Amino acid sequence: MKEKLLKIFLEHEGEYVSGEKISQELGCSRTAVWKHIEELRKNGYKLDSAPRKGYRMVTKANGIHSHEIKQYLKTNYLGQELTYYDAIDSTQYAAHKLAQEGIGEGHVVIANEQTAGRGRLGRVWHSRSDTSISMSLILRPTLPPQKTPQITLLAAVAVVRAIKKNTGLTCEIKWPNDILLNGKKLVGILTEMQADPDLVHSVIVGIGLNVNQQKEDFGEDIEEIATSLSIAGGKTIDRARLIADILSEFEWLYEEYLSKGFSTIRPMWEAYSISVGTYIYARMIKDVIYGYAKGITDDGVLLVEDEHGKVHSIYSADIEIDTSR
């Protein structure tokens, strides 16, 4: 009901809508309309009311409840079912539990605040209340386990495209899963799977995005290396609309990938990459390889040619770009 009510106000932005019209469109009594209006006010929406005029939305809340996201959502299945938490340790943990319980493909877990977010190699991901996007997508692709890293690269393309559409800002991708803006980290993507040796049961794609943080919101340990869309763009971003755009971009890319393979995603990823075509250090657990990043394979593996002409296949590493060359 909240989704329908918000849609009415969006269609009549800045205008008063009579209580009678709202009750007819919602199919409920005028008393019920008043109760739904009060619920929106409790969620942070500022709504005016005037005798013989009705109700008018003055300001929207920047929330990410299901009814707020679904105002903008145009997907067939991704995000049509959402589990929302005002605060949670990690959306990844919750998504894994739901996947184990048999939840369907396309379910999304989303949180307004994440207290124990994590990235690759167990790193901490900071997600303050009301400022960021923390969500995990549950997928059930028919893929061999070795193909699932490609979904991380696909997710990066989806997020970059959605940010460009939503804000006009152009981001860059550092292999395999970091999205940078003006050289600073903006988005982290963590892809995990539940699988047997030859069968994927589910893939959980975690996305953490700095949206409306200001410089003072970042701790001293990350303030020089992290940024947000609001800092870069100089304005507050509608998180619900951005989430809907990310899910829409992800869904069509995912469908393309499942039907045609990674070869259709690869050129889009490379177009945004700052790793390819540069000299890099690929830091692995037991080794460091220095060389020229030639590109990625159709399996999403990074190819690095060292100074002796040997090409190395990099499956997992921290990448540092050599800015001296």
TrEMBL record:
UniProt KW Cell wall biogenesis/degradation keyword: no
Positions contributing to biotin binding: 114, 118-120, 185
InterPro entries linked: aa-tRNA-synth_II/BPL/LPL (IPR045864), Bifunct_BirA (IPR030855), Biotin_CoA_COase_ligase (IPR004408), BPL_C (IPR003142), BPL_LPL_catalytic (IPR004143), HTH_11 (IPR013196), Transcriptional_repressor_C (IPR008988), WH-like_DNA-bd_sf (IPR036388)
EC number: 6.3.4.15
Keywords noted in UniProt: ATP-binding, Biotin, DNA-binding, Ligase, Nucleotide-binding, Repressor, Transcription, Transcription regulation
DNA-binding region: 19-38
Catalytic function, reaction form: biotin + L-lysyl-[protein] + ATP = N(6)-biotinyl-L-lysyl-[protein] + AMP + diphosphate + H(+)
Superkingdom assignment: Bacteria
GO MF terms, alphabetically ordered: biotin--[biotin carboxyl-carrier protein] ligase activity
Record flagged with keyword Plastid: no
Residues in BPL/LPL catalytic domain copies: 67-258
Gene3D superfamilies noted in UniProt: 2.30.30.100, Bira Bifunctional Protein, Domain 2, Winged helix-like DNA-binding domain superfamily/Winged helix DNA-binding domain
Classification via PANTHER family: BIOTIN PROTEIN LIGASE, BIOTIN--PROTEIN LIGASE
Protein's job: Acts both as a biotin--[acetyl-CoA-carboxylase] ligase and a repressor.
Similarity comment: family membership: Belongs to the biotin--protein ligase family.
Name of the featured protein: Bifunctional ligase/repressor BirA
